From TrEMBL:
The keyword Transcription regulation does not apply. It holds the Pfam family Rieske_2. This is Rieske 2Fe-2S domain-containing protein. Keywords: 2Fe-2S, Iron, Iron-sulfur, Metal-binding, Nitrate assimilation, Oxidoreductase. GO terms for molecular function: 2 iron, 2 sulfur cluster binding; metal ion binding; monooxygenase activity; nitrite reductase [NAD(P)H] activity; oxidoreductase activity, acting on paired donors, with incorporation or reduction of molecular oxygen. One of its GO terms (biological process) is nitrate assimilation. It comes from the Bacteria. The keyword Electron transport does not apply. The lineage of its organism: Bacteria, Bacillati, Actinomycetota, Actinomycetes, Mycobacteriales. Residues 11-106 form the Rieske domain. It comes from Rhodococcus spelaei. InterPro entries: Rieske-like_NirD, Rieske_2Fe-2S, Rieske_2Fe-2S_sf.
Length: 108
């Protein structure tokens, strides 16, 4: 008997027209609050929406192509790893995200 393994499933988040370049948006995806960001280059990034420091709304943070800054205390979280640049703050979980056609998908 083999141990159960978790396989990420691609989940539809919503139409890309819901997103505005330079702004994040929080979605409920399979019981998680996921922040999705539309970058200036037209690609998307996704991570858990709640800042692990003191629960700030990461979707409301400023971001560039590499990271988002939490709006409450300005801690910075990398899109690729979820790692915070400040010592002692846990990483957030990140999710592969993509646009296909007119729809945004994340892998949960
Ligand atoms: S709540 Fe996000 S940095 Fe403090």
């Amino acid at each position: 008997m083999t141990a159960p393994t978790h396989t990420a499933a691609e989940v539809t988040v919503g139409p890309v027209t819901d997103l505005t370049p330079g702004e994040g948006r929080t979605y409920a995806v399979q019981g998680r609050q996921v922040a999705v960001f539309l970058l200036a280059d037209g690609t998307v990034r996704a991570m858990d929406a709640v800042c692990p420091h003191k629960a700030g709304p990461l979707a409301d943070g400023q971001f560039d192509g590499a990271a988002v800054t939490c709006p409450l205390h300005q801690y910075v979280f990398a899109f690729d790893t979820g790692v915070c640049t400040s010592d002692g703050v846990p990483a957030v979980r990140t999710y592969p995200a993509r646009i296909r056609g007119d729809t945004v998908y994340v892998e949960i």
